[in-house]
Design goal:
82 residues, two-stranded parallel sheet, 2 helices, 2 strands, 38% helix
Length: 82
C-alpha cells in the first residue's frame, strides 16, 4: 500500500496554482482609463420635412467639432418625406 507523502495531492496543486497567479499579477500594471468621449443625441420629432436636412447637418457638424465618439439620431416621427 502506498502512503501519501507530505504536500501531495489536490492541496499541492491548488497551492502551486495560487503561487503562479500571484506571481503573474505581481509585475502587471493597470493602464489609466482613457477619457470618455461624448455621445451626442439628436432628437428628430414630428413630420419629416425638407427643413430637417440642414438641422441634421448642423447637428452632425457640431458633434464632430466637439470630438463626439458617436451620434444617436432619436427618431420619433409618423413619417413624411424621405
Amino acid at each position: 500500500m502506498r502512503t501519501r507523502g507530505r504536500g501531495s495531492g489536490p492541496a499541492r496543486v491548488a497551492l502551486v496554482g495560487i503561487i503562479v497567479m500571484v506571481a503573474g499579477c505581481a509585475g502587471t500594471e493597470t493602464a489609466a482609463p482613457e477619457p470618455e468621449s461624448a455621445v451626442y443625441r439628436v432628437p428628430v420629432t414630428g413630420t419629416i420635412e425638407l427643413g430637417l436636412a440642414p438641422f441634421i447637418e448642423r447637428s452632425l457638424a457640431e458633434a464632430a467639432a466637439a470630438g463626439a465618439a458617436a451620434v444617436v439620431l432619436d427618431i420619433e416621427t409618423p413619417g413624411g418625406r424621405v
